[in-house]
Amino acid sequence: MLEVKGLRKVYRSGSREVEALRDLTFTVDNGELVCLVGPSGCGKTTLLRCVAGLLDPTSGDVRVDGKAVDGPPPGMAVVFQEYGRSLFPWMSVRDNVELPLKQKKVPKQRRGELIEQALDAVGLTGTESAYPWQLSGGMQQRVAIARAVAYEPRTLLMDEPFAAVDAQTRADLEDLVRRLWKRLKVTILFVTHDIDESVYLGQRVVMLSSSPTVVQDELVIDLPAERDQLTTRADPRFIELRTRVYEQIQTAKKNAGK
Amino acid sequence: MTTARRADPARAGNPALLGVAGLAGLLLVIELAPRLGLVDERHLPPASRIAAALAREAVSSAFWVALSDTLIAWALGLAIAVGAGVLAGLVIGSVPVLRALTASTVEFLRPIPSVALIPLAVLLYGSSIGSTLLLVCYAAFWQVLVQVLYGVADVDPVAFETARSFRFSVWARIRHVLWPTALPYVFTGVRLAASVALILAITAELVIGSPGLGNQIAVAQASAAVPTMYALVVVTGLLGVLINLLARTGERRLLAWHQSVRGEVAL
């Protein structure tokens, strides 16, 4: 279980202070897929970095399975938006996926199995020896997802992972995330600025206000578990839910303007 | 480079062929100028006589001893400078306090021309190989250090955070993120340092008289063996070309993944 309680982050540079996050509280249950959506510049990435233990919050705390996060916790993997910079260009696809496993001291044979399974799961069998920069953007992000999956995390954080890929690839990758989530039973916190994406993917959507950020609203997505790009997105309930999220985000923006 | 390749091939001609033609032209000028009396033959002998002197050198053992002396001083000095430069660069570069602390000192020490240290080298080591090494190391060290500092500063924050999020140890972060990022810079540093090291090795031998090609050039000059002197100068030039070529080949092999080497890629 992932708990975020009273999280606040203030950036200081010299005498200037910017309050990025004001007061955030929400939880993600084990095995849940929660989407965080908010207007651009609302501190989504700051929040995610605090949850990942990459950034110390000014106050409040983050707990994973009851343990306070004060550095990257074990059993957590992060998929960054900038796949091109997150993958190491000096390593082949296979080595990129393998390196975190080596760091985790997974035995060699097991590493081989995990790599094969992970690459197969993201549909990249046969690209082991390629370098990331020889692949298309969508394939690179698949490699990053495979790397995270092979790590066998209990919690998977995804920071706007599909913001930089084209719309068709994005639809494929969304379905991939749903499939992996169901199969691996991981907890996923998925950060996005795309309202449709958040409704399509999530079991629950947490909406954030504009900066300084608080939780604007939460919405349970009561769509059937089997989703697909055509029927789900045409479902009247989907449209109803996305409208609700859209309205909340608009309200958040308006309040920020005042 | 791409634009050069795209230029009209008929007008551009074969670059290798043109290069050879240029070299042949230069040799021809050096051959003819003294023979036509345009320059004094005592100061610039014709190319053919320089070549003959070079052939004589190639069979003399003193020449090969001098060549190996120069190469040893060059290689040893370069190795020490690269080792020290890389180590210092990685340490200074990854500790912001150290970097701030040393920045002004580096900027002060770096521009001191190595040749200004010749009196010090003589005081410390006389005309032994130690003198050459001191000058070579000093000149080459800064080239490497500065490049490594740039390299460490170039580490991608996303790559670094990726490593952190997967709980890489400090050593693993250096080994798998910092070092590969800095490597292209290290190579640039080594390439620059290799050329500078050769210059300083020859200079030290020439001025101080420590054993090596530089010393042989001085001896040839003092004994009025002008063609031999030129022949030795040609050898030092060839060494420079060879060293640069080696460094570039090594760079291309080891950095096949890097943007500057891999070029445009399909997909």
Protein topology:
The complex is a heterodimer of chains A (258) and B (267).
Chain A: E1 2-13, E2 16-28, E3 33-37, H1 44-51, E4 59-64, E5 67-68, E6 76-79, H2 83-86, H3 93-103, H4 108-121, H5 137-150, E7 155-159, H6 167-184, E8 187-192, H7 195-201, E9 204-208, E10 213-220, H8 231-234, H9 236-257
Helix pairs in contact in A: 3-4, 3-5, 4-5, 7-9
Chain B: H1 2-6, H2 9-12, H3 15-35, H4 47-58, H5 61-94, H6 96-109, H7 118-125, H8 129-153, H9 157-165, H10 170-208, H11 213-222, H12 226-254, H13 259-262
Helix pairs in contact in B: 4-12, 5-6, 5-8, 5-10, 5-11, 7-8, 8-10, 9-10, 10-11, 10-12, 11-12
Domain ABC transporter (chain A): 2-235
GO molecular function, one term (chain A): ATP binding
Protein name (chain A): ABC transporter ATP-binding protein
Description:
The complex is a heterodimer of chains A (258) and B (267). The model of chain A has no long low-confidence stretch (mean pLDDT 90). Chain A is built from nine helices and ten strands. Chain A has 258 residues and is an alpha/beta fold. Chain A has a ten-stranded mixed β-sheet with strand order 5-4-1-2-10-9-3-8-7-6, sandwiched between helices. Chain B is mostly helical and 267 residues long. Chain B is built from 13 helices and no strands. At the A-B interface, β6 and α3 of A face α9 and α10 of B.
